[in-house]
Write a structure and sequence with these properties.
The chain has a 6-stranded mixed sheet. It has a single domain, classed as 4-Layer Sandwich (Nitrilase/N-carbamoyl-D-aminoacid amidohydrolase), CATH 3.60.110.10. The protein is globular and about 60 Å long. It has about 290 residues and is an alpha/beta fold. The longest helix has 17 residues. α1 packs parallel to α3.
């Protein structure tokens, strides 16, 4: 990597068995080995790939959730070290009696970082988790400036925009997109890549769990909103893309010199955007919508 800025990444579109952490971890290790053998340096797994997602009760989720020092994550990290790769792996995380929906970034030298989901839909695990209030951040690994979000986070354009302003080259989004989210599948990934001029990799799961059917259709887009790799169905698959992350850094696009030039960052008018953070304009949650903090 020191001689070239190119990165090869993979999205592993896998099925997951609810609550079967050991079985899911074995499957992750097999996919990781295969992706690394095909040249991937960063391998992205779906949301809650270790634990599953569609828990019916908080206790059920707590029973399956793992701490960040669990043997499952340790085994994956040790494989990353042996294979000299990085992996983004989703899991239900427990810290004491608190639940989070988490993506761990593991690498050759150990656990690099972790991201906890900040926007929670009323679905599955997220009915019982605590939303993170930590600031968004960029993680730099061997010259790649990486931002991590999880599933529903990507439906809020502010999340990708903040990561872009912080310097992201690549934003990854482990997901559990179920039936009903086909519009998100078709339009969101390319739009987020295009509007921020970043690489965007979305890794969705497949299979059936807790009454939900998951759509697959993972995809990797370039800063122009064009797809570098795409899955067209809901079957297990691994998709790959190789790119130069530094191509995301020049936001000044010159189409006709002196006649057609744009920058989606420099041309912003943030002084007009204050309603985005005006608390009085935020609608109340639906009646009966309870969060763990309440």
């Amino acid at each position: 990597m020191a001689d070239s800025p190119l990165w090869t990444i993979a999205c592993v579109q896998m099925d997951v068995t609810l609550g079967q952490n050991a079985q899911n971890t074995r499957q992750i290790l097999s996919y990781l080995e295969s992706a690394a053998s095909q040249g991937a340096r960063l391998v992205i797994f779906p949301e809650c790939a270790i634990t599953g997602y569609s828990f019916k009760t908080r206790q059920e989720a707590l029973d399956s959730a793992i701490p960040l020092d669990s043997p499952h994550l340790t085994a994956i990290q040790q494989a990353c070290s042996r294979l000299n790769v990085y992996a983004v792996v989703g899991t239900a995380e427990k810290e004491g009696n608190t639940l989070y929906n988490t993506a761990a970034l593991l690498g050759p030298q150990g656990q690099v970082d972790r991201y906890r989901k900040t926007h929670l839909p009323w679905m599955g695990l997220d009915r019982f988790t605590t939303a993170s209030s930590e600031p968004f951040r960029i993680i730099e690994i061997e010259g790649l400036r990486l931002g991590i979000l999880i599933c529903y986070d990507g439906s809020f354009p502010e999340t990708c925009r903040v990561l872009t302003l912080l310097g992201a080259d690549l934003i990854v989004l482990p997901t559990n997109w179920p039936e009903g989210a086909m519009g998100v599948v078709k339009h969101l990934v390319a739009a987020r890549a295009l509007e921020n001029h970043v690489f965007h990799a979305v890794c969705n799961r497949v299979g059936d769990e807790g009454g939900f059917h998951f759509l697959g259709r993972s995809r990797i887009a370039n800063p122009g909103g064009e797809y570098l790799a795409i899955s067209e169905d809901d079957q297990p698959a691994t998709i790959f893309a190789t790119f130069d992350p530094t191509l995301a850094r020049n936001k000044h696009l010159v189409r006709v010199p002196g006649q057609h030039e744009i920058s989606r960052l420099a041309d912003r008018r943030p002084e007009l955007y204050s309603p985005l953070i005006h608390a009085a304009l935020v609608p109340p949650k639906p009646q009966g919508w309870i969060t763990p903090a309440e």
